[in-house]
Write a structure and sequence with these properties.
Blueprint: H1 3-13, E1 26-30, E2 33-36, E3 41-44, H2 47-50, H3 59-71, H4 83-95, E4 102-107, H5 110-125, E5 129-133, H6 142-147, E6 165-168, H7 179-192, E7 199-204, E8 207-208, E9 214-215, H8 218-231, E10 234-238, E11 262-265, E12 276-281, H9 282-285, H10 301-316, H11 319-338, E13 344-350, E14 353-358, H12 368-380, E15 383-384, E16 386-388, E17 394-397, H13 405-422
The protein binds pyridoxal-5'-phosphate.
Residues 49, 109-111, 114, 137-139, 205, 209-210, 238, 240-241, 266 line the site of pyridoxal-5'-phosphate.
């Protein structure tokens, strides 16, 4: 069986809505390398979309999960819980930014974490409205699709979405949206669409992920915090893509010098095991009735032990510093390349959450075709890459934070070669 044959079989039985970036079928993966079933070896600059921050097949996580599996795999934490469930909550509530006493809940996916944060915000405030941002991504369930601020492919054809959701522009210097513009748009929403006293929550990503890796300015985050305080609105930071050392801090909110009322976490939380969390102020988190939050697999014991191991690895292996080191290398090399490639409009590196945006140097128009071609060429050059951006003109680099420096350099050599060939 080769990649092409499996891809053919896939197309017969998997609906096209569940896309695949590459017709590449994985046999095994180790740290920043992936091998396909034909024996081809790739450098992975995707890490399963910022999930395996601690590297593929991390032995410490594998051992912790194996040991757990030998004991039990599932009891349902809402029926008969276990120590790792409590311990992971203790650790995350301690590590989440801000001085308030905190509580957590566990779920399975990122979208579920966002759904539950909105549920808690509504239960706490007794209000219904939610404000999110254009270009934001929060998931594929009905509520999180509604919150997402990008139509194709996430919302196209899937409406109606829940009502009482409103979108404001996210600050974006490159595209001429200032903090002031975004704040004014929020005031306009309050004047034209929903009074602030009916808004339960404002949800934002400290760095927009799918939207293109744009970081929230500190003055914007502080103004959001002040606005929420003024009107009794819950501020939710969606840290699903940014969390767990990816941006050079354990959580990207730490750059913003604010304490959100709730944070959503998933992806890197457990290095590839499906578990997510909402961590927030205890006074807020306790608003829902017992049994109102959770799920059959919520806080799976496999996810909990993996999550505990991830936190140890992040600390012991200093992954925040490693993320910053990766960002510096990528920034230096891509800035050098930009001198000969004016199609590179901007290089953004927030720790190891790294993006390259392409635009026509004269017209400023987004270069979607170039972006698509770069992604397409990556496979034949032994590289796994992802795109993002509302205008589909950004490639994002998300290698495991444990990537060896020579593998990172080799991956960047390949990327440079592709870019020079195509631009
Ligand atoms: C910021 C953000 N929120 C929510 C989600 C949804 O997470 P999941 O795909 O686990 O439901 C994602 C996934 O990419 C994300 O990046």
């Amino acid at each position: 069986m080769n990649n092409q044959q499996l891809h053919q079989r896939r197309s017969q039985v998997i609906a096209q809505g569940m896309g695949a970036m590459y017709p590449l079928y994985v046999e095994r993966a180790e740290n920043a390398h992936v091998w396909d079933i034909e024996g081809n070896k790739y450098i992975d600059f995707a890490a399963g979309i910022a999930v395996t921050n601690t590297g593929h097949s991390n032995q410490r996580i594998t051992n912790a999960v194996k040991e757990q599996l030998d004991n039990f795999s599932h009891t349902c934490a809402m029926v008969t819980p276990y120590g790792s469930f409590v311990e992971l909550a203790e650790k995350l509530t301690e590590l989440a930014p801000g001085d308030s006493a905190k509580k957590a809940i566990f779920l399975t996916t990122g979208a579920e974490a966002v759904e539950n944060a909105v549920k808690v915000a509504r239960a706490h405030t007794g209000r219904s409205g939610v404000i999110a941002f254009k270009g934001g991504f929060h998931g594929r369930t009905n509520m999180t699709m509604g919150l997402t601020g990008k139509i194709a492919p996430y919302k196209a054809g899937f409406g109606p979405f829940p009502n009482e959701i409103f979108h404001a522009p996210y600050p974006n210097e490159l595209h001429g949206i200032s903090t002031q513009d975004s704040l004014q748009a929020l005031q306009d929403l309050f004047a034209c669409d929903i009074e602030p006293s009916r808004v339960a929550a404002i949800i934002f990503e400290p760095v927009q992920g799918e939207g293109g890796f744009y970081q929230a300015p500190v003055d914007f985050a502080k103004a959001l915090r002040a606005l929420c305080d003024q009107h009794g609105i819950m501020l939710i930071a969606d840290e699903i893509q940014t969390g767990f050392a990816r941006t050079g801090k354990l959580f990207a909110t730490e750059y913003l010098d604010i304490e959100p009322d709730m944070m959503t976490m998933a992806k890197g939380i457990a290095g590839g095991f499906p578990i997510s969390a909402v961590v927030g102020k205890a006074s807020v988190m306790d608003s829902a009735l017992p049994g109102g939050l959770g799920g059959t697999y919520a806080g799976s014991p496999l996810g909990c032990v993996a999550g505990l191991e991830v936190l140890k690895i992040v600390e012991e292996e200093d992954l925040c510093n490693k993320a910053n080191g990766i960002g510096e290398i990528v920034n230096r090399r891509m800035t050098e390349l930009q001198k000969s490639l004016p199609q590179i409009a901007e290089i953004r590196t927030i720790g190891a959450m790294m993006a390259i945006e392409f635009a026509d140097p004269e017209s400023g128009q987004p270069l979607q075709d170039l972006t698509k071609a770069v992604i397409g060429k990556a496979q034949e050059n032994g590289l796994i890459l992802l795109s993002c951006g509302v205008r589909a003109n950004v490639i994002r680099l998300l290698p495991p934070l444990t990537i060896e420096s020579e593998v990172l350099e080799e991956g960047l050599d390949r990327l440079e070669k592709i870019l020079l060939e195509l631009a």
